[in-house]
Structure formats: structure tokens, C-alpha cells
Design a protein that fits this description.
35% strand; 14 strands; alpha+beta; 2 domains; two-stranded antiparallel ribbon
Amino acid sequence: MRNSLRNILVGVLACAVALLLAMPSMAAPLSGTFRGDGTDATVGAAFLNWCTAANTSACSNGLGGGTFGNFTLSLGTGSFVPLNGGGNTNTITDLNNTNAKPGNTNDNVNFISLTGLGAFTISLQIVGLGTGGTAACGSLPAPGQTCTPVINGVQSAFTLTNSQPPSGGITSTAQLLVSGTASDGNPADNSTWFGIVSNNFPFPYQSLLSAISAGGTNTGVVDAPWTGSFNFSAAVVPEPMTMSLVGVGLLGLGIFGRRKLRK
């Protein structure tokens, strides 16, 4: 009798292991990286629009300063390889201090929409605070300077950096850090992501701040092209079927162990 029970348990464990090895995973979380490039964006004191009034082709709704901007995806890896070369048909939601306040947890659903991605929703949760400090914001322009301005009492999300290209002069970059989640409604498919978005300007950031300040009114805007790099990582969640099979195996080991101790 004991030998029969032992043989049955060994058979159950063998089947469980075989199923674990042979069963394909149903989860398909997003993983990999891609680059996004936009023709123009409008940078203001408390907002970033991904298209401009002067270039309506960059706006998914055809209006400058609209809700979305279009961008081209390239250099996709992992889940994003099939999306390479898909044209300027992907969209990204404009940012401001209402829907994406820097340093706060937000819930900006459908922040990024990728053509051909399927049912996945890419949501924005965090817009990081800039890390450039304020000490050099009002200094005379020089390469290597950094600045994160405080505008209307709010620390900006941008880290501004001056640099000197080989051709001479001083140019600047405004960098923004963002992160969030991606899901198709199945917890097993959840993933997290982070991105670095940059606007490039052919002049030092002191000129950028002066233009946006507009004489102290903070109503000015500056247009510039943008680029972003985005990295997605799967959030590991055990699948229900896998956990059930593991449970069966552990149960078998437990019963078999008790029988062995009684002998």
C-alpha cells in the first residue's frame, strides 16, 4: 500500500515538473528600450508641449499646443523591435503642473501611445525634480554650468546644462526624468519603465530662462526639437497556474515526508 502511494506521489511530482518545463508562459510584459524623436516641442515656465503652433504636423490633433504630440520610434529592442520604422504615428501627452506635478505621484493614463503595441496602456506616475540647483542659474554663461530654476515658488522638473560644442559657442540642454507603468489589464503582464527626455537649444540656458521669464511674467515660450530614451522592465509576478503546480509539488513532498517519518 505504501509503495503504491509513494509511486502515485512520485508520478504526480513528475507530471508537475514536466508541465512546468513544457508549459509556455502566457504572460507577455513589455521589456526593452526605444528612442523617441519629436520635430519640435514648446517649453514654458510650467509646461512642456510636444508640438508647436509653427509645426502642426508634430501635433496629433493638428493644433499647436494641443493635448498630444507625435513622435518617431527608433532603435527599439525587446518588445519594441517590431515597431521600428513605423513613422511619425506615436503620441505622447503634454505635461504641465496639473497633470504631472514634479516630485508628486501622478496617474497620467495613456501618457505614451505606440502604434502596433496592442492593448497595453503606458501610464506616467513620476516626473522627477530637477537636480541642477539654483546657484548658477543667474551666472554669466559658461560651459559645464547646471541649473534647476524655481518658478513661481515651484522647483522645476528640468535640469539645464550648458556645454560647448567643437564648433565653439555655448549650447544648452533641458533634461527631464519620467517613470511609470505599463499594463494590458493582466497583472502578470505588468512592467515598469523610466525615461530621459531632452530638449536641445543653440544658446545657453540663461537665454532660455530670460525668454521664458518674459520680463518677470513667466509667460514666454521657446521651441526646440526633443529626443527621449525609454527603458521597460517586466514586473515579475508568478502566474496562477505555475503557483498551483508548485503547490501540488509541495503538498506531495509534505505527504511523502510524513509517511517516511512514520515508518
